[in-house]
Structure formats: structure tokens, C-alpha cells
């Protein structure tokens, strides 16, 4: 499956978009999610090279998942996930530190979502960054990507989301920039 996704950072004067979306379409109950991001042998994204492995510890309620990701030179992403119970998460974090991985950022967000016209709409309130709207669809083939992007752009127009607000960077990258 291919994830087709667009993310938009909402300016302070556009918060009514979330209220309007919640009124027109029922947003799910807010879920709090915390991601701890580790790099191997380096202590900041300043020294990061694309293709280096990234380890993430994601906590959603009582579920904890450790994921190691690495972009492959030929394209795509290599990924391994390890779910652990909440009680064992601290021990795994200690183990990771012993292997030379350094915690470089912590992303904490509250997430609500809904489905509109076959598109998953996610509203994230990210601590230290503000509010974002992500629109995403999973498609089976590359031939579907262009049509799906057109559908996403139409929905953005319908919701009042401006193209100028598009954000290509990940939350951990934005937090690293904002903390400098």
C-alpha cells in the first residue's frame, strides 16, 4: 500500500477550521501520543544524514511500540517494529541507551480523526508547535496517487485549508528547528 498524505500547519487565525470540521463531521475522541526519537551515535539532527537509522518509542495510552526505520538508497523504507507492554518500556529504553542511541527529541501530540469522502482527516495538536491537519489515503498502485491528491486538494478547499499552509517536514524536524 502507498500512503498519500498532505500535512498543513494551521495559523492561529485559522483555528475555526477545526471547529467547523468537528461540527460537520464527528471527530474521534482525543488520543494522547508521545514519541521519543533516538539517533545512533549522534546527539542531534544537525549531524543526521538521510539514510541513517532512526529509532522511535511511541506510547499511545498503555500501548508502547519501538520502531527502527531507515530510508533505503533505492527508495522505500526498511522498518522493524517491536510492541512491548508499558511495564517493560523503561527497561527497553535503558537497553537502547546502552547500545549508544541518544534521545534527540520528544514529540507529544493530541490526535483526533474522522473520515470525509474516503479521506482520513487527522487533527494534531502538537506541544510546542501548534495545530496541524493531515489528510491521508492508502492506495494500492502508483497510478492512483495523482487522482487521490486531487481528491485531497478538493477536500482542503472545502474545509478552507490553504495550500500556503502545507508543511513537508516531520514534527521531530520542526521541533529540532524551533528549539535552536
Strand order across the largest sheet:
1-8-7-6-2-3-4-5
Any low-confidence stretches, pLDDT <50, length ≥5?
none
Distance between the termini: 36 Å
Question: Mind telling me which CATH architecture this is?
Answer: Beta Barrel
Order of helices and strands: EHEEEEHEEEHH
Rounded to an integer in angstroms, the radius of gyration calculated over CA atoms is: 18 Å
Average the pLDDT over all residues and give the rounded result. 87
Bin the strand percentage: 35-45%
Cα shape: globular
CATH C-level class: Mainly Beta
Number of domains: 1
Number of strands: 8
* DSSP helix fraction: 25-40%
Q: Could you explain how this protein is built, in words?
A:
- The protein is α+β, with helices and mostly antiparallel strands.
- Helices cover 25% and strands 43% of the residues.
- The chain has helices at 16-24, 86-98, 145-159, 171-178; strands spanning 2-9, 31-40, 54-60, 63-71, 77-85, 101-116, 119-126, 130-139.
- A hairpin with a 3-residue loop joins strand 7 and strand 8 (130-139).
- The radius of gyration is 18 Å and the shape is globular.
